[in-house]
Amino acid sequence: MNLPEKMNRLIGAWAARSGEKGARVGCALFCFRTGRRWDLDGEKRFVPASNNKIWTTLTALEELGPEHRWYTRFAAEEGGRLWIRGGGDPSFDVNAATEVARALRRQGLTRLEGPVLLDDGLNRDAPWGRGWAWDDLAQGYSAPVHALNMEHNRIAFRFDPSSPTPEVIGFSPVQCRAGAEVRLSWSEDPDAEIRIFRTEGPYGFRLEGEVFRGDPEVRAAVASGPEFFAQVFLEVLREEGIRVPRGGEVRTGPFPRQPSIRVDQASRPLVEALSLVNGESDNLVAEVLLRSLGLKETGFLSQEAGIQKVLGRLAKRRLVPPEVMADGSGLSMYNLSTPSSLNRALVWARKKHPWFTAWLKSLPRYGKSGTLRDRRAFLPDGVEVAAKTGTLSGVKSLSGYLLRGKEPTLAFSLLVNGLLDEKNGEKLQDEVLQLFSAIG
User: Does the keyword Glycoprotein apply (predicted)?
Assistant: First the structure.
């Protein structure tokens, strides 16, 4: 029995067994050893979910380079004002804030009276992507995108797994003011569904549904990245011994030309951000990568300019672009790609991308790391899978490589839409990978 027959039989049996006869399955495969291609509905359009990050990260790594950094700039006057200008750093956190606070103090800053002036003007786009679901905007994975970002613009609520019902025992960053009304119960399902609603104030939430006891943490998105940044940073200044009045004015304002005290804080290099985007599927970082592609042409973080840069780079490489690209992360249901186009991009990357080794390293490993760490496919000894996952309502995607001896032998893209239960999509992925491992 040849591969097409095996695939058709496998998918038919899976659909009958799982009750997913109405789901659409598309797949494309390339063998590096033989140069042969194969596809099943490979030219059909599918919502790719986070497989959209493949387009974003391949282009950003090639266009911006692995050492690209974002800069957050701070200026102050002793006993007076504080200015903060965002440069788009998607990974700025409390540790970075502490470094800045200590640098400001070394330059003589001991007291601020205010106001605090924020410059988020590098990002003029909406803080969310086109087509993001409005009822998901309080979820941690839908955090708003700004030039000023702090702790991924999320608040993490922690629960005591030993308590009869989930009770908040802490949250991070601890420097913010946050509260949660909890209407949760425990679940033993890692995919337990949690619904998050904003209540009074920018940092109040209502948490409903179920939380997995094995990972007792819920991440909620803040309403405004710059305001959250200011709140956390001012508290860090206080922790470092700089006197800052409570309840001071925070507003927008331009950065000064020649401040008496100034600190420029560089982000980690782009290559380190890749593991957040591809490995952990962080949507905010993906969106910053996309918008950063537009900086050179527009002078701003621009989603549309970033999309045009991706499409232009793919055309230059003679690769088929996504049919519709609405964002950088894949959260939008407007995105459309074909398994064949994703597969060809993976083949090109393996052969010609100047930073392929770094990009491959950023992908999750089946059963080992990232969003694939908990997967359990029965693969032969010496076979690994490095692939980008994707999940939305009714959508499961997996595109990447089969590795033998750490070297890619197969490139594949498997896109599934119209699922009644996303877990069924994972089961199909496991079965398909077992089939591929027998031929790769």
Answer: no
Question: What local confidence, expressed as pLDDT, does residue 1 receive?
Answer: 61
Residue 19: domain span: 3-67+270-439
The answer to whether 411 touches 339, Cβ cutoff 8 Å, is no
**DSSP-derived 3-state class of residue 336:** strand
Q: Torsions phi, psi of 412, nearest 5?
A: -140, 155
Taking the CA atoms of the chain, what radius of gyration do you get in angstroms?
Answer: 23
The CA distance from 427 to 294, in Å, is 39
Question: Distance between CA atoms of 279 and 273, rounded to whole angstroms?
Answer: 10
- Examine the fold and report which residue of 266, 293, 312 is the final residue of a domain before the chain moves on: 266
Work out the average pLDDT over 117-142: 96
pLDDT digit string, tens, across residues 352-368? 999 999 999 999 999 99
> For the segment 33-52, what is each residue's pLDDT rounded down to a tens digit?
999 999 999 999 999 999 99
At residue 438 the predicted structure's pLDDT band, cuts being 50, 70 and 90, is confident
pLDDT classification of 387: cutoffs 50, 70, 90? very high
Closest to 305 in 3D by CA, of 21, 59, 53? 59
Separation of alpha carbons 296 and 50, rounded Å: 26
DSSP states along 22-73: T-EEEEEEEETTT--EEEESTTS-B--GGGHHHHHHHHHHHHH-TT---EEE
Within this chain, do residues 260 and 355 fall inside the same structural domain, yes or no?
no
Same domain, 165 and 275: no
